[in-house]
């Protein structure tokens, strides 16, 4: 299913995007050495429900998962890259943490993710990998405009990731959003320009470049959800929800600085 929002629906998408961004910014500021991932999940729940929104993850039950996700946010640490299930773990100095959040507010979903290093340590390889995903995300957004093809976005993203020397997994990537979290079209993190669905105003896309330092192979953790690098290497993931407009793309998941929770 591909949904196209009307101009009157776009303000609701902006509100959902701002909420996601502000929650992520708040959680990032609270995530410190010693913070437990279960506390991060509890904080996310309080902010989401306090805003009158719903997490898209609590009842999320795709074919590749093990039952409902049951938590409000994905928390992926170090070699975990996607669908990190919050669990009893205290963050350590130098951990690479990815927070991935999708909420529904007034019937419209926004989805975003941010990776950062916890504490005072700054491992150069981790910083470089995060930077590569952020640059790839910017390239994908820059390629998004009416008349462009999905392959144009995938090519822009993949060119940055490959140029930085990272293997690329195309099984999981970006996707359409709307009244639900995961919709068509799929936006792979590598692709050929001029191919795929033609973008048009009102389309919402979640673009999400992610990489693993030395492999493109994923393994599923014992929890049935968390996807990790097959080699145990570190990973990074950046994501924004954008709206295709008449003259380009609008990033919906930029923080406003508003206090949440």
Automatic annotation (TrEMBL):
Binding site for substrate: 83, 182
Pfam family, one: Peptidase_M24
Annotated binding of a divalent metal cation 2, by residue: 111, 175, 208, 239
Highest taxon above the source species: Bacteria
Keywords: Aminopeptidase, Hydrolase, Metal-binding, Protease
EC number: 3.4.11.18
Cofactor: Co(2+); Zn(2+); Mn(2+); Fe(2+)
GO molecular function: initiator methionyl aminopeptidase activity; metal ion binding; metalloaminopeptidase activity
GO biological process: proteolysis
Domain Peptidase M24: 13-246
InterPro entries in UniProt: Creatinase/aminopeptidase-like, Pept_M24, Pept_M24_MAP, Pept_M24A_MAP1
GO cellular component, one term: cytosol
The UniProt record lists the keyword Cytoplasm: no
Substrates-to-products reaction catalysed: Release of N-terminal amino acids, preferentially methionine, from peptides and arylamides
Family from the record: Belongs to the peptidase M24A family. Methionine aminopeptidase type 1 subfamily.
Assembly mode: Monomer.
General function of this protein: Removes the N-terminal methionine from nascent proteins. The N-terminal methionine is often cleaved when the second residue in the primary sequence is small and uncharged (Met-Ala-, Cys, Gly, Pro, Ser, Thr, or Val). Requires deformylation of the N(alpha)-formylated initiator methionine before it can be hydrolyzed.
Name used for this protein in its record: Methionine aminopeptidase
